[in-house]
Amino acid sequence: MLKNIDPALNADVLHALRSMGHADTLALVDTNFPADAIARQTTLGKLLHMDNIPAARAMRAILSVFPLDTPLQPSVGRMEVMGDPDQIPAPQQEVQAEIDAVEGKTTSMYGIERFAFYEHARKAYCVITTGETRFYGCFLLTKGVIPPAAEL
């Protein structure tokens, strides 16, 4: 156990988040996503787990240490619902609330068509699978930067 580190963040996930650089992406995915096969094609080359944790809870844990690239671009993508790309299902609504809480403002997610999402995930630094069992609990995060203390 560590102080001030969310216990949902295991050592493998923390190592990956710390190893990522500015503009690297990670795929945070639900239990239905072909996570292992796609994770083998990423920079890290292996699947990371946040098992038994819903997507929103996993997002909260990740965002407790992970800076989003929000000043420059939309930094969180969501897998679009097939046939209804503007629909925002419950897991995505819950994740949006976590993002807004961390950022202190509404930071809209951008939609990514399902098969395009798979392609983006293959190019990501890593894939982290959650315990989210509901459909469309898949997200792509772009890492930002942390400015020097003097610039805060």
Automatic annotation (TrEMBL):
<dbReference type="InterPro" id="IPR050443">
    <property type="entry name" value="RbsD/FucU_mutarotase"/>
</dbReference>
<dbReference type="InterPro" id="IPR007721">
    <property type="entry name" value="RbsD_FucU"/>
</dbReference>
<dbReference type="InterPro" id="IPR023750">
    <property type="entry name" value="RbsD-like_sf"/>
</dbReference>
<protein>
    <submittedName>
        <fullName>RbsD/FucU family protein</fullName>
    </submittedName>
</protein>
<dbReference type="Pfam" id="PF05025">
    <property type="entry name" value="RbsD_FucU"/>
</dbReference>
<keyword id="KW-0413">Isomerase</keyword>
